[in-house]
Amino acid sequence: MRVTGTGHASMRIDTAAGSILCDPWVNPAYFASWFPFPDNSLLDWETLGDVDYLYVSHLHRDHFDAAHLKRYVSKKATVLLPEFPTSEMEDEFRALGFTKFLKTRNEEVVELDGGLKIMIQALTSPTDGPIGDSSLWVEYDGVRLLNQNDARPTDLSTFAELGHVHAHMLQFSGAIWYPMVYELPQSAKTAFGKQKRDRQFDRTWRYIDDLKADHVFPIAGPPCFLDDELWQFNDIHGDEGNIFPDQSVFLAEYAKVGGTNGIVLLPGSVSEITTSGATTTHPVPLEEFFANKVAHLEEMRERKRPIIEAEKASWRHPEIDVLKELKQRIEPLLDESIYLAKGVGGPVRFDLVGYDGESIESIVVDFPGKQVRPYADEKVRYRFRTERALVEHLLHIGEVDWVNSLFLSCRFSAARIGQYNEFVYAFFKCLSTERLQYAEGWYDEHERSVDAEDITIGDWTVQRRCPHLKADLSRFGIVDGDQLTCQLHGWRFDLPSGRCLTSVGHKIRAHRAGESAEVEGAEVR
């Protein structure tokens, strides 16, 4: 099995029975904020796109690059579709001209022509990507590969049960706006960023240890930020709180925990994988490339500057009455929302900065009141500040997912009172009836489910499944004193009270080992 690195989470897998192109991303994403690093735009995409099969893990725009797919990927390719709860992915592919689809069933092995086998595991929580994420398992002639990209399954046993894996591709770096955009002292941002960076690596080590593959390939990050306004987010400034470490940092950190089987793929690197080993060649010397990272970024910044400026020029739509349009689009969704509206529990404020950089229009999405209205000087727990032009553009293109556009762009600042609230972001990625109805149904089912099984970790007996997204706490749970941390997403719980310390809701059932739950007073459901 030959794997050619094509940048970020993208790769081309070649076997004698067929080829698969995965997650090709080249064009800037999220309001021209994210670019692939290392740069992959100069690869021979005409050749790389001439494949038998195409797999895109999910609809995040650093995985689903519509312009690139339309221009460079053969429409003769069969699209391998994860079993997602909505038809959005298939609809998007059809709009680009693709006509051949293999609609997989979740975790079901499919044998393609020539003995090539594939299996896709789909994750379908409203917090998994934009309504869904997935991983691809491939086997040919006894060689097995898992492309986990940035999916976060509760465990990898489904893949391990199919046989020993020889190549494991997975995310290790950040792909979020936290904590950089929050209006906090720099010392706090650094502390929170370091915590997140450490959690990212801890989660990666846990996945690697679960699967025990022969070779580990760090992929799906980091992006680079070439706009002057965002340049500080690149991990080149000696900031220990930067959440975007690159592949060379991965190798160094992996070595600290005893990892010796890491393989980095640059765009154009080729790894020949067999059951007995892997041989990898690179287009340029690996160590030399990362030693000159700043120079590479500076060269990219100058080369991509016209692209960024052209995108910026397209954002303004002064003809749009933002308040009026938001009312028309969001109020019907608020009327339909039960769980998300209750979960947010209060008004969310948007401060829109005008073209002059000074004037501000403040608009509130009032979840309890089920309306969009001007800000009335009330207290809010969540506040976002961004350019009016960005919201105009979202309304102009009918964007249904502000998380997969505005928030991931990092072109905003945020402030909140109290804990993180996942329902805020869940709502703003569900700005369509189809998405909202799915999310409401998921939370309804989740709310009614009962997790009866308990496990013991240290001095505590807790429910086996994390209240957040059902991660197996026997694998991901760490108890320190009276606190439990689920390492899958870094959520923390106060065990004596059962209270979630990371977000509102999500109470855990817990009591000291050997004592009854009633003695401890923890919630029993």
From TrEMBL:
One Gene Ontology cellular component term attached to this UniProt record is: cytoplasm
Q: Name one Pfam family in it.
A: Rieske
Keywords assigned: 2Fe-2S, Hydrolase, Iron, Iron-sulfur, Metal-binding
Entry-linked PROSITE patterns: RIESKE (PS51296)
Protein name, entry field: MBL fold metallo-hydrolase
Q: Which GO terms describe its molecular function?
A: 2 iron, 2 sulfur cluster binding; hydrolase activity; metal ion binding; monooxygenase activity; oxidoreductase activity, acting on paired donors, with incorporation or reduction of molecular oxygen
Query: Which classification does the entry list for the species?
Result: Bacteria, Bacillati, Actinomycetota, Actinomycetes, Micromonosporales
Please report the stretch or stretches of sequence annotated as the Rieske domain.
Answer: 462-501
Source species, domain of life: Bacteria
